[in-house]
Write a structure and sequence with these properties.
By secondary structure, the protein is mostly helical. Helices cover about 70% and strands about 0% of the residues. The longest helix is centred in the middle third of the chain and has 31 residues, at about 165-195.
């Protein structure tokens, strides 16, 4: 078996992905090196294990460069180029499976090209997602990016409008930040309090908690969920917070991402386990 980054990467592709990669590499849009196509054709009969006595550097080289003397550096270069194409392909399939990213990049590209007519048309289609309730950080970031593109378009047309669009752009960014930072801080606090890992410094936590005392984010239940999880861990003797967390999960199950529900139950489990270890009734 040949030891190669390219082969390692090909092994992580499913049979269907491996076949689609073949179509990807044949396309002149993605690859103009015909030798890479030939290398793919040579390797495809050995996928996914690539374990065969016939799969040697010398045999592959002879098929790639018939009637020429074996040169290891030349073969390594071809395999390196194939690795780069596989990485391009992985980025491509990740991009294709995320409709929000496609919308965002298309709107941005039309905006940069001053294609106003088509920008407005595509933006309207992309904006349809704004009808959905706010939940995940990904959706919040997407909404912020759309508002940013709209405002950039206005500025380029000398139509700088002090309207709700500007406020929405900032609002979505703040909500996105709060979800991301609260999720991180929650897991760090869990490590500190329940796993007894010390040394972490949450320098911005007090400011966030003070902010949340005075600002309600009822349209983003995940923010309230993590706020209550943090308060639960910082105030373990206050029975209000575990009750509030359970209530929020039950009443917002459809609006919360699976990972956030899992994190909440994980921390609740640690909270009750610690209570039991101390002999407290729960």
């Amino acid at each position: 078996m040949i030891k190669s980054k390219a082969i390692d990467l090909l092994q992580i592709l499913s049979r269907k992905e491996f076949r689609v990669f073949g179509e990807f590499i044949i396309s002149p849009l993605h690859n103009k090196n015909k030798r890479l196509v030939l290398l793919y054709d040579i390797l495809k009969e050995y996928h996914p294990d690539f374990e065969s006595e016939e799969l040697t550097k010398e045999i592959v080289y002879t098929k790639l460069f018939p009637h020429t003397e074996y040169k290891d550096n030349v073969l390594r270069k071809v395999f390196s180029e194939l690795s780069a194409k596989i990485l391009d392909f992985l980025a491509y399939i990740n991009f294709r499976k995320n409709r929000l990213n496609q919308n965002k990049h298309l709107v941005s590209e039309l905006n940069q090209r001053n294609a106003d007519k088509y920008f407005d048309e595509v933006y309207k289609d992309a904006e349809d997602v704004l009808r959905y309730p706010l939940s995940s950080d990904e959706l919040l970031k997407y909404k912020h990016n759309l508002e940013l593109e709209k405002n950039t378009s206005y500025i380029k047309k000398n139509k700088f409008l002090l309207d709700e669009s500007l406020l929405n752009e900032s609002d979505y960014l703040i909500k996105f930040f709060l979800v991301k930072i609260l999720r991180r801080y929650t897991m760090i606090l869990n490590e500190q309090i329940y796993e007894l890992n010390t040394g972490f410094k949450l320098s911005f936590l007090d400011e966030i908690l003070n902010h949340l005392k005075n600002h309600s984010y009822g349209d983003v239940p995940v923010i309230s969920l993590y706020n209550n999880l943090v308060l639960l861990m910082l105030n373990e003797d206050d029975a209000r917070y575990p009750q509030q967390v359970r209530k929020m999960i039950c009443s917002n199950e459809l609006a919360l991402d699976t990972v956030d529900i899992y994190n909440a139950y994980f921390i609740l489990n640690n909270y009750y386990r610690k209570k039991n270890d101390k002999g407290s009734s729960v």
